[in-house]
Design brief:
Number of domains: 4
Number of strands: 35
CATH class of the largest domain: Mainly Beta
Helix content: under 10%
CATH architecture of the largest domain: Sandwich
Strand content: 35-45%
Largest sheet: 8 strands, mixed
Distance between the termini: 125 Å
Structural class: mainly beta
Number of helices: 1
Shape: rod-shaped
Length: 486
């Protein structure tokens, strides 16, 4: 016969429609009905053409009926449409045999009905000259068992383009409608299949639902929009029971995020999801995200999934939250100066934890649990910020910073003898020096050179006040005694 092209389309409109190639449907089940329009060499009506829609094209009628013109239909073997045509009538349907096929013109295609491929002779189709009538071309009431999915399919052959259809299933019991509006069909001379997969959900009160299935013309066109319909099928689908598997990405670091996931072994869409968990957590997403995780969010999360048939399945997954490694370290001593600039930074080591020390002075980082570090101190340095980053075996980190304050070093003895060593007391600081009698000998920041009014003072012990800025830029004062030795 002729090339046949089969298309399966995923339908989604109204609540949801489903294509037969989607998911894991194993087989087509019981046939509810199969309409192949029988075997007719003479035109007959279809009892499923709604009243007030298309007009039957009687072979004994006027020229519009004989020719099956716009807004007319008939059920007949397409090779016998021409039987009613007289010499005065126009004929534009497909060729009646292969020998009459021409390369161009109104009879460039030849076809029998679609069912003929199985060996049936004189197989009829519904011949539709859709014209400008947007209405049903086939409508049928059914009583369907609940808890199943159903396949509604048909074949269409465009004789003269262009055409467009819709396919629908209306459930009068639960009020749900499943509809797919097909594409513009512009390819002439080939049989194409379309189908709609719809559920009749489980009901607590009904074992059956009243469902009306229908095909409808959706396009208006005078010159064209001519097609055949054949092999309309509604069958019940067998589907595996709904099963699910919940999981998550834990263990997860505190403060980060993770997905809750549920995998489905079913294609009975649409699904609804309900997650519950610690601290009143709820979500209706399939794969919700837990953000900014804290330890209180650890625990079991449960998901309940309901499919389009009303079947349910539940599963749980344990979320584990890693608080990260301990990070509290000690500094000894907690202050430094230019003479005492070594500090021990240490933390009790944990198994599987790595450490990184940043001493805040631009020197290379260290990775031991305990480190002795020498700080280089300049006159403008008031503090060093030591930061420790601890990382555990799954990559969770904690950081902690502590401040080491730089305080001035104040000697107890100085010797202003001109040898270039220890000749000036506390240069660069705001200093006051008084003698035993309380006389102010020096005040300034250039450092005391052991003189008063240009004259050297005797070797003795003197009292001092030293002012300096701390790490918070606040003035601090140290006082004590300095011994001058010559």
């Amino acid at each position: 016969m002729r090339d046949k092209i089969k298309k399966s389309v995923l339908f989604a409109l109204a609540l949801m429609c489903f294509a037969s190639l989607y998911g894991q449907t194993k087989t087509y089940g019981d046939t509810i009905f199969f309409e192949n329009f029988g075997q007719h060499t003479e035109r007959v009506k279809s009892i499923y053409m709604p009243a007030g829609s298309y007009t039957f094209a009687d072979a004994n009628g006027d020229s519009n009926q004989k020719e099956i013109q716009d807004n007319y239909y008939a059920v007949v073997d397409p090779r016998h449409i021409r039987d009613a045509i007289s010499s005065s009538n126009s004929y534009f349907w497909t060729a009646t045999s292969l020998s009459t096929v021409t390369a161009n013109g109104s009879m460039s295609h030849y076809t029998a009905d679609h069912t003929d491929s199985t060996g049936i002779t004189n197989g009829a189709v519904m011949v539709v000259n859709a014209g400008t009538t947007v209405n049903y071309i086939y409508k049928r009431d059914l009583i369907l068992k609940t808890g199943y999915r159903y396949l509604f399919s048909f074949w269409i052959y465009v004789v003269a383009r262009s055409s467009q259809f819709s396919i629908e299933a209306k459930n009068a019991t639960n009020g749900k409608t499943y509809t797919y509006t097909g594409p513009f069909l512009t390819n002439e001379g080939i049989w194409i299949k379309y189908d709609l997969n719809f559920p009749v959900p489980i009901s607590g009160t009904d074992t059956t639902n009243a469902v009306t299935v229908g095909l409808q013309n959706e396009y208006k066109l005078i010159s064209g929009n001519d097609y055949y319909i054949d092999d309309i099928l509604v069958s019940r689908l067998y589907t595996d029971p709904l099963s699910i598997k919940a999981s998550n990405g834990s263990p997860v670091c505190q403060g980060s995020s993770t997905n809750l996931n549920v995998k489905l072994s079913s294609d009975v869409i649409p699904f609804t999801f309900l997650w519950t968990g610690p601290n009143g957590f709820t979500s209706t997403d399939q794969n919700p995200v837990l953000q900014h995780i804290i330890t209180e969010m650890a625990g079991w999360y449960r998901v309940k999934v309901t499919d389009a048939l009303g079947q349910t399945a539940t599963d749980s997954t344990l979320v584990r939250v890693d608080k990260g490694p301990k990070c509290d370290f000690t500094l000894s001593p907690g202050t430094v100066n230019i003479k005492h600039n070594s500090v021990t930074c240490s933390i009790p080591p944990e198994k599987g934890v790595t450490y990184e020390w940043d001493f805040g002075d631009g020197t290379p980082h260290d990775t031991l649990a305990s480190v002795d570090h020498l700080f280089t101190i300049t006159g403008s340095t008031t503090e060093f910020v030591v930061k420790l980053t601890a990382t555990d075996s799954i990559g969770c980190t904690n950081t902690l910073s502590k401040t080491i304050e730089v305080t001035p070093f104040i000697p107890t003895v100085f010797s202003p003898n001109g040898d270039g060593v220890n000749d000036v007391f506390m240069k660069g600081f705001d200093v006051q020096v008084v003698d035993r009698n309380g006389m102010l000998l020096y005040k300034g920041s250039d450092g005391w050179d052991g003189t008063y009014n240009g004259r050297t003072v005797d070797s003795d012990t003197y009292f001092y006040l030293v002012n300096y800025l701390d790490k918070n830029k606040k003035v601090q004062t140290k006082k004590g005694y300095i011994t001058l030795v010559r």
